[in-house]
Structure formats: structure tokens, C-alpha cells
Amino acid sequence: MNNLFTIDCGEVLLREFRIEDADAIYELTSQPEVYEFLPDWRSTKEQRLNWVTNYEVPDNKGFLAAVPNIEGGNSLKLGIVLKETGEFIGFCNTCIKEELREPNREIAYAISKHYRNRGYTTKAAKGLIRFLFENTDVELLNAVVLPRNKSSNKVIQKCGFHFKGNVGIEGEQHYHYILHKDEWKSIE
């Protein structure tokens, strides 16, 4: 993987974004099944290339250089890649969710409509959670999910998060889930 940071999650790998991923990210975030739940990710091809080149790739390098002390505003955006073929099929990220009270580090993810219901998203999310709890100063993770996003709610629950309550974000109610490092250790 050209010396890129990767996390082995079984059938899939998480690896830091590359500039060459811009088209695959654009295609993924252009799927209605993705932008319905992650509208901020929708872009033109030109915007996506700019974001990957000038923000996401440099932000990843900054995040990885800061490990283990990443509790600030650092974000990490990783592609979900099929181990067998190297195909980019989704992403799994961690960043600060400004709409939540501190500690407000969250995880978020998306997978192509062509690879849903195969367990890849759960494997990727669990891989990122393991990395964060084992290698950084993170003690609590958040996830916010629209109630109608049944698949994402299932993934979060399979990862051990528990429901904290509802939170309004951009005029919509979201389910707010949390996972404490100590709770995660007891279920791992």
C-alpha cells in the first residue's frame, strides 16, 4: 500500500486517503444512499480532488504525527478497501463533532451500495475503534445517526455503542451513541 497507514480488518483494510482516491470518493458520495445521510460529503469532482489533495491527505498526516495525543481537532479519514482486489468501497473516519459537548470525538462511515450487508462497515468501524482506544488518548467515542438510517444504527450497536439520547443537528433529530474505552475493553 505504498507505506500508507493501514489497519487490517479481515476482508477489508482501512488505509489513509490518497490523492488517487478522489474519483472513487466522488463516485461513492454521489450515490443517493450515501448523500442522503452524509450531505456534506456531496461535491463536484473538482471540489473532491481539491479537498482530498489540500485538506484530507494533509490532515491525515497531521493526525498520525500527533498520535497518541489526538484529542484536539485532528481528523483521520480512511478508505475501506477490499483486501483481495484493492478496490475502494467506502470510508471510515474520526473527527471532532462540533455539535456535541466535549469530549466530542466521533466516528462516521459510508459504504458503496454495491457492498452493503456484507459486514464490511462493521469490520472497518471496529478496526478504527480498536486503533483509537489502543493507540491514542481517546477515552470516549460518539456516533450520531439519523433514526431512519437503520443499517448505520445496526453497525453502531454491533460495535458496542449504547444509546445516550437524541440530539438536534442541522434541524434534524439524530440518535446519539457513546462508547467508553473501559466499556469497549470489557466487550473486546
Write the layout of secondary structure elements.
Blueprint: E1 6-8, E2 12-16, H1 22-29, H2 32-35, H3 45-66, E3 76-82, E4 88-96, E5 105-111, H4 120-135, E6 140-145, H5 150-158, E7 162-169, E8 172-180, H6 181-187
Antiparallel strand pairs: 1-2, 2-3, 3-4, 4-5, 6-8, 7-8
Helix pairs in contact: 1-3
What does this structure look like?
This protein is α+β, with helices and mostly antiparallel strands and 188 residues long. It has one domain: Gcn5-related N-acetyltransferase (GNAT) (Aminopeptidase, 3-Layer(aba) Sandwich), CATH 3.40.630. Helix content is 35%, strand content 29%. The chain has six helices and eight strands, in the order E-E-H-H-H-E-E-E-H-E-H-E-E-H. It has helices spanning 22-29, 32-35, 45-66, 120-135, 150-158, 181-187, and strands at 6-8, 12-16, 76-82, 88-96, 105-111, 140-145, 162-169, 172-180. The strands form two sheets. The chain has a five-stranded antiparallel β-sheet with strand order 1-2-3-4-5, with helices on both faces. A three-stranded antiparallel β-sheet has the order 6-8-7. Helix 1 crosses helix 3. It is globular and about 35 Å long.
